[in-house]
Amino acid sequence: MNAPLPHNLNFDIQGLVHAVSHNQSLDAFHAGLTPKQWELLGTYLQPFAVRQGQVVIEQNGNDRTVYLVESGQLTVHFEDDKGRLRLAVVEAGSAVGEGAFFTRQPRNATVQAAAASKLWSLSPIRFTELANRQPQLALEVAMGLGSLVSRRLANRPKRIAVT
């Protein structure tokens, strides 16, 4: 799934912080984190790059990882018997994968990179470690993701983005 990283591509949690703070849309990941908390969260996240067209989440997959988008753009598709239907676009400063993260159900849609993107992943195992070691930080992350789920469910076109 992970694209090889070009030598000149650098990851710094501040890039993600910048993307989140500048996304003022209803689809933004809003977590009330301090700069120190962001730095600490960064130690639990795995950064990686995806190429345009690369699949990040596969419909019906059982993975529960959540992805925060630093840069680029992702599209969410629901695949039915007639083919692929593009249903939502997820921009920098938002997240995908929060639905399965909370429900432990298979993914309800496919997420694909519409452009080269920088992502940060949080696996269930790393979230459990975070919750055990930094419960207040884990609560803030969970509340931010829960808020995103709620806003997407209230917006009919974005409902399918709850992956």
Q: Keyphrases for this structure?
A:
163 residues, alpha+beta, Jelly Rolls, four-stranded antiparallel β-sheet, 8 strands, 33% helix, globular, disordered N terminus
3D architecture notes:
With 163 residues, the chain is an alpha+beta fold. It has a single domain, classed as Sandwich (Jelly Rolls), CATH 2.60.120.10. The chain is 33% helix and 26% strand. The chain contains 5 helices and 8 strands. The strands form 2 sheets. Strands 1-8-3-6 form a 4-stranded antiparallel beta sheet. Helix 4 packs across helix 5 (135-154). The protein is globular and about 50 Å long. It starts with 12 loop residues before the first helix and ends in a 9-residue tail after the last helix.
Q: Return the CATH topology.
A: Jelly Rolls
- The CATH class, by name, is Mainly Beta
Q: Mind describing the biggest β-sheet?
A: 4 strands, antiparallel
Q: Which CATH architecture is right? A: Sandwich
- How are helices and strands ordered from N to C? HHEEEEEEHEEHH
**How many runs of DSSP E, i.e. beta strands?**
8
- Report the total helices: 5
> What distance separates the N and C termini?
17 Å
* Main structural class: alpha+beta
